[in-house]
Specification:
mainly alpha; 0% strand; 5 helices
Length: 138
């Protein structure tokens, strides 16, 4: 439970960022869900970058992983929105657009994650300042 405040705060940040993208690129149920595609692609890249670049560092406090991974990126990306968009596009009579969206989501997501892992691995070899362990404060 000591990680919960970090996840909560990270979730608030990720949700706010996601809301910003959704408001900048609004779409109806029958439109291509660009905001969801963009958020999930960015999230896949960032998680790959963090996993390869920071998560492997010795001494990284658990609260950093929980706050950034589960909190920020967990709330920023959303599998459920992908599924809702696919169902809505199909129900509205646009199954081809749904297949295009699903294909783009998978290709861009895998590509972004792979690129993030590759670039994160380069970060792993750089010297970074120590991140203090919050101990029992989180």
């Amino acid at each position: 439970m000591r990680l919960a405040p970090g996840v909560l705060l990270g979730g608030m940040v990720g949700t706010g960022l996601r809301l910003g993208i959704d408001q900048a690129l609004p779409h109806a149920d029958t439109d291509f869900p660009a905001s969801t595609l963009i958020a999930n692609t960015i999230g896949a890249f960032m998680l790959g970058w963090l996993v390869a670049g920071l998560w492997t560092r010795p001494g990284l406090p658990a609260w950093v992983k929980a706050t950034l991974g589960t909190g920020v990126l967990g709330s920023f990306t959303t599998y459920s929105a992908v599924m809702v968009s696919l169902v809505a596009l199909g129900a509205a009579g646009f199954p081809t657009l749904g297949w295009i969206y699903l294909t783009a989501t998978l290709l861009l997501g895998f590509g972004a994650a792979a690129l993030g892992l590759q670039l994160g691995a380069q970060l792993r070899h750089r010297v970074l300042p120590d991140i203090p362990d919050a101990g029992s404060t989180l």
